[in-house]
Amino acid sequence: MQRGNHPIARDAMAYVLAGGRGSRLAELTDKRAKPAVHFGGKARIIDFALSNALNSGIRRIGVATQYKAHSLIRHLQRGWNFFRTERNESFDILPASQRVSESQWYEGTADAVFQNIDIIESYAPEYMVILAGDHVYKMDYELMLQQHVDSGADVTVGCLEVPREEASGFGVMHVDDADNITAFLEKPADPPAIPGNPAMALASMGIYVFRTKYLIETLRRDAADPASNRDFGGDIIPHIVRHGKAVAHRFSRSCVRAESEAVPYWRDVGTIDAYWQANIDLTDVVPSLDLYDRSWPLWTYSEVTPPAKFVHNEDGRRGAATSSLIAGGCIVSGSSLHRSLLFSGVRTHSFSSVTESIIMPGCEVGRGARLHKCVVDSGIAIPPGLIVGEHPEDDALRFRRTKSGICLITQPMIDRLEA
């Protein structure tokens, strides 16, 4: 299929909700919002939603930020500054700025759009695509936009087909045979099945398509309701289901897959375990998510770095990496890496080993250190000789260790070791 230059997408604006902390990622989001967390050896989580919009042909994008937004805003300014107004393109970063009242920040996902209605109206898009900025997937929003137009829906909701026993953690759509949504249930104990497929349910992806005029009217009505929590999933969508026409769009219809990708890929990397697993999966010979698909590129900030370098070639002191992703600016000096990801500017010193671990930018792994199943936050110097991932009891006392044995290492944890 020929992608890009889609007429409906060119009449749309993508609005990315990127203000959440993502508290289930624990200390990893102490200094950044979840959408700003590093992913895949080079990118940030938000780059997936933004790249999907760009690759789908959408040329007007807004990003609403709130929680500890500095690193996210810096990334957006560096990596997404190529939009040109003379081509009818725009890219707006929209921090919570008390534009409605002097005491009001974004009170919910719907309020994060409502407070910027004037900016949206100034661009006059025909359609609005509301996106979450914290999921990992590849999707052509043009196909969802086309369904929205063809169906005459007031809102089209992006949905995942998930096993019913897993759906209780999502907002779940009850649909008829034509995928019209008849009920929206928030984290139901007994999720309704898809018609004709009793083992599966339709879970909301947090992706919504509206005609802009209808969305603005709906947001203004919701803002005037003192009982509302100003939330799309909790207020806006249920109201439309009851009083309008809401239609489900199945992710399987618009997911983008390279030839090597066997099944539709979508991940909520909202826990340390899920985040670790999604990154480590990229080291597989044939990964479930293909970052090398040039027909649907992952756009991000490309640092100017020297090539990765591997030095020393002696028994026991050989710079080597297997089944790993190594970013530019890394120096692997007499150390071994296996099934790991090194972001830019990481240095691993002689006799150290890193296995099944994620090392974020600017870290240094000291001489003789051993890291196994670790997530190391950015800019950390791992002390020489430190061993993590081999002694569960010791790890649990020093670091955040999950039930599955993944250890998160942050600077305050290292500081306590050295105190």
Automatic annotation (TrEMBL):
<feature type="domain" description="Glucose-1-phosphate adenylyltransferase/Bifunctional protein GlmU-like C-terminal hexapeptide">
    <location>
        <begin position="306"/>
        <end position="409"/>
    </location>
</feature>
<feature type="binding site">
    <location>
        <position position="204"/>
    </location>
    <ligand>
        <name>alpha-D-glucose 1-phosphate</name>
    </ligand>
</feature>
<dbReference type="GO" id="GO:0005978">
    <property type="term" value="P:glycogen biosynthetic process"/>
</dbReference>
<dbReference type="InterPro" id="IPR011004">
    <property type="entry name" value="Trimer_LpxA-like_sf"/>
</dbReference>
<keyword id="KW-0119">Carbohydrate metabolism</keyword>
<protein>
    <recommendedName>
        <fullName>Glucose-1-phosphate adenylyltransferase</fullName>
        <ecNumber>2.7.7.27</ecNumber>
    </recommendedName>
</protein>
<dbReference type="InterPro" id="IPR056818">
    <property type="entry name" value="GlmU/GlgC-like_hexapep"/>
</dbReference>
<dbReference type="InterPro" id="IPR029044">
    <property type="entry name" value="Nucleotide-diphossugar_trans"/>
</dbReference>
<dbReference type="GO" id="GO:0008878">
    <property type="term" value="F:glucose-1-phosphate adenylyltransferase activity"/>
</dbReference>
<comment type="similarity">
    <text>Belongs to the bacterial/plant glucose-1-phosphate adenylyltransferase family.</text>
</comment>
<dbReference type="InterPro" id="IPR005836">
    <property type="entry name" value="ADP_Glu_pyroP_CS"/>
</dbReference>
<comment type="function">
    <text>Involved in the biosynthesis of ADP-glucose, a building block required for the elongation reactions to produce glycogen. Catalyzes the reaction between ATP and alpha-D-glucose 1-phosphate (G1P) to produce pyrophosphate and ADP-Glc.</text>
</comment>
<keyword id="KW-0320">Glycogen biosynthesis</keyword>
<keyword id="KW-0067">ATP-binding</keyword>
<comment type="subunit">
    <text>Homotetramer.</text>
</comment>
<dbReference type="Pfam" id="PF00483">
    <property type="entry name" value="NTP_transferase"/>
</dbReference>
<keyword id="KW-0321">Glycogen metabolism</keyword>
<dbReference type="Pfam" id="PF24894">
    <property type="entry name" value="Hexapep_GlmU"/>
</dbReference>
<dbReference type="InterPro" id="IPR005835">
    <property type="entry name" value="NTP_transferase_dom"/>
</dbReference>
<keyword id="KW-0547">Nucleotide-binding</keyword>
<feature type="site" description="Could play a key role in the communication between the regulatory and the substrate sites">
    <location>
        <position position="66"/>
    </location>
</feature>
<dbReference type="GO" id="GO:0005524">
    <property type="term" value="F:ATP binding"/>
</dbReference>
<feature type="domain" description="Nucleotidyl transferase">
    <location>
        <begin position="15"/>
        <end position="283"/>
    </location>
</feature>
<feature type="binding site">
    <location>
        <position position="171"/>
    </location>
    <ligand>
        <name>alpha-D-glucose 1-phosphate</name>
    </ligand>
</feature>
<dbReference type="InterPro" id="IPR011831">
    <property type="entry name" value="ADP-Glc_PPase"/>
</dbReference>
<feature type="binding site">
    <location>
        <position position="106"/>
    </location>
    <ligand>
        <name>alpha-D-glucose 1-phosphate</name>
    </ligand>
</feature>
<comment type="pathway">
    <text>Glycan biosynthesis; glycogen biosynthesis.</text>
</comment>
<dbReference type="InterPro" id="IPR023049">
    <property type="entry name" value="GlgC_bac"/>
</dbReference>
<feature type="site" description="Could play a key role in the communication between the regulatory and the substrate sites">
    <location>
        <position position="105"/>
    </location>
</feature>
<feature type="binding site">
    <location>
        <begin position="186"/>
        <end position="187"/>
    </location>
    <ligand>
        <name>alpha-D-glucose 1-phosphate</name>
    </ligand>
</feature>
<keyword id="KW-0808">Transferase</keyword>
<keyword id="KW-0548">Nucleotidyltransferase</keyword>
